[in-house]
């Protein structure tokens, strides 16, 4: 959910950016990171833990904790909380350590 | 290899201020930050700062960031790399950077590590469920991206960050059901705590989180009361329904990159945990590598700025290119720092710095 009214900050209308999450076309906004766009869509599970496959969201939002790592355009371990969203990005939940291709 | 007089790792308050002084002294500076924009954590701080005028009091954090960034405008000797991650630091002052999928090597004469801090975490059952965030993460999500973390939230920790972020959650339209605090007293400033209470948010002291409840996502939390010895009191369990939980239990200095050059560290609880040992000029045990801001001890952003200015001046001196107003500025910023540390939370810092001093006098 996005904030529409705020006493201090203003969030002017921004251009939509369309991207693909788990095979479905969805919309974020210009200025979003991948993680903030997914959050606004109420998608909060970004990956699954490697051994027990427990759902993981993000924790720090500044690129420290690795809990938001996802596969972006085929590249694993992308810190989605600090990666700006781009048009037509293909974003997938990560379930393993990631593989080198 | 590209050569630079000074490479600053981290474009937050202390890194920006260090850059300003060094540039004024005629030093070429490369400023590297992993985020899309400079300003560090100031950019998400919507509250007004305390202190005196030269410490930017009564100015909102994000406006201070703008000011500090503006100060660097039109500096010909400055190069900025955003969205860039430093991946290596070597004793010969080689810095390697990952930038736009490229691996770049720089040779610096001096390096300032201004990497800031990371949020501490708390151990409890199901603490990895989506919907559990650091307080700073919630601030970033709301104030930078305009996205809400949830509808109903509990804050763990009543320090200043916990209290301020709780207020910002209310401003964004989120219901803060409670602020819980394991200690018997509230950690942050009274003025912040009173404001929250006036707005109807209960602050529950001697209360901690036992577990988070939910399978795919946080749905509720169980809290429990603690006695004076921090033991759980049986029969005091309470369930609070939430769709998000915010953890605000302190910060740890983030100086891991300094391990690559073998800089000496010491555990000083008052400064936030393991910190690099520095001399009076903020130089680490490794020649020509400096550190300032939260990375060398947790304080407020205002102190990080003053430390940044001082470290920039010290680096200029170290390179033999003293700032034209060096003496005056050092005196000024040192007195500002002293003033900030005279506040109620400064006592801890002062004890920590005394321990640091002990360490350097032994060496």
Structure description:
The complex is a heterodimer of chains A (101) and B (363). With 101 residues, chain A is mainly beta. Chain A has one domain: 2Fe-2S iron-sulphur cluster binding domain, sarcosine oxidase, alpha subunit, N-terminal domain (Ubiquitin-like (UB roll), Roll), CATH 3.10.20.440. Chain A contains one helix and seven strands, in the order ββαβββββ. Chain A has a five-stranded mixed sheet with strand order 2-1-7-5-6, covered by helices on one side. A two-stranded antiparallel ribbon of chain A has the order 3-4. In chain A, a hairpin with a 6-residue loop joins β3 and β4. In chain B, α3 packs parallel to α4. Chain B has two domains: 229 residues, FAD/NAD(P)-binding domain, CATH 3.50.50; 127 residues, FAD/NAD(P)-binding domain (3-Layer(bba) Sandwich), CATH 3.50.50. The longest helix of chain B is centred in the C-terminal third of the chain and has 18 residues. Chain B starts with a strand and ends with a helix. In chain B, strands 1, 2, 3, 4, 5, 6 and 19 form a seven-stranded mixed sheet that branches. Chain B has a five-stranded parallel sheet with strand order 8-15-9-10-11. A three-stranded antiparallel sheet of chain B has the order 12-13-14, with no helix packed on it. Chain B is built from eight helices and 19 strands. At the A-B interface, α1 and β4 of A face β8 and α3 of B.
């Amino acid at each position: 959910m996005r904030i529409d009214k705020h006493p201090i900050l203003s969030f002017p209308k921004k251009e939509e950016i369309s991207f693909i999450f788990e095979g479905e076309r969805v919309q974020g906004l210009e200025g979003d990171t991948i993680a903030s766009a997914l959050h606004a869509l109420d998608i909060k599970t970004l990956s699954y833990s490697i051994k027990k496959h427990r759902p993981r969201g993000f924790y720090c939002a500044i690129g420290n904790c690795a809990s938001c790592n996802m596969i972006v355009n085929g590249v694993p371990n992308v810190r989605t909380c600090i990666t700006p969203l781009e048009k037509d990005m293909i974003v997938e939940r990560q379930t393993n350590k990631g593989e080198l291709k | 290899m590209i050569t630079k007089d000074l490479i600053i790792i981290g474009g937050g308050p202390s890194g920006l201020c260090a850059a300003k002084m060094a540039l004024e002294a005629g030093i070429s500076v490369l400023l590297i930050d992993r985020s899309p924009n400079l300003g560090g954590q100031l950019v998400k701080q919507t509250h007004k700062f305390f202190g005196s005028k030269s410490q930017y009091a009564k100015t909102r954090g994000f406006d201070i960031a703008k000011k500090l960034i503006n100060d660097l405008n039109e500096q010909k000797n400055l190069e900025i790399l955003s969205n860039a991650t430093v991946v290596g630091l070597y004793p010969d002052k080689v810095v390697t950077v990952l930038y736009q999928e490229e691996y770049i090597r720089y040779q610096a004469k001096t390096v300032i590590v201004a990497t800031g801090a990371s949020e501490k975490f708390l151990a409890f059952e199901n603490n990895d469920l989506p919907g559990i965030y650091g307080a700073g993460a919630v601030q970033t999500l709301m104030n930078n991206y305009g996205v809400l973390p949830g509808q109903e939230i509990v804050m763990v920790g009543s320090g200043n960050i916990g209290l301020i972020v709780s207020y910002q959650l209310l401003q964004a339209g989120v219901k803060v059901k409670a602020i819980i605090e394991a200690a018997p007293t509230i950690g942050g400033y009274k003025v912040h705590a009173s404001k929250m209470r006036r707005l109807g948010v209960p602050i529950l002291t001697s209360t901690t989180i036992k577990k988070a409840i939910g399978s795919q996502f946080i749905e509720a939390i169980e809290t429990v009361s603690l006695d004076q010895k921090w033991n759980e009191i049986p029969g005091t369990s309470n369930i609070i329904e939430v769709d998000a939980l915010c953890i605000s239990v302190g910060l740890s200095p983030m100086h891991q990159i300094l391990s690559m050059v073998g800089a000496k560290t010491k555990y000083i609880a008052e400064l936030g945990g393991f910190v690099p040992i520095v001399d009076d000029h903020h130089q680490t045990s490794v020649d020509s590598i400096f550190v300032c801001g939260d990375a060398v001890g947790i304080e407020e952003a205002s102190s990080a700025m003053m430390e940044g200015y001082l470290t920039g001046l010290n680096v200029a001196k170290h390179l033999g290119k003293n700032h034209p107003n060096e003496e005056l500025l050092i005196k000024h910023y040192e007195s500002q720092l002293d003033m900030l540390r005279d506040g109620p939370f400064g006592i801890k810092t002062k004890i920590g710095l005394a321990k640091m001093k002990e360490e350097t006098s032994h060496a």
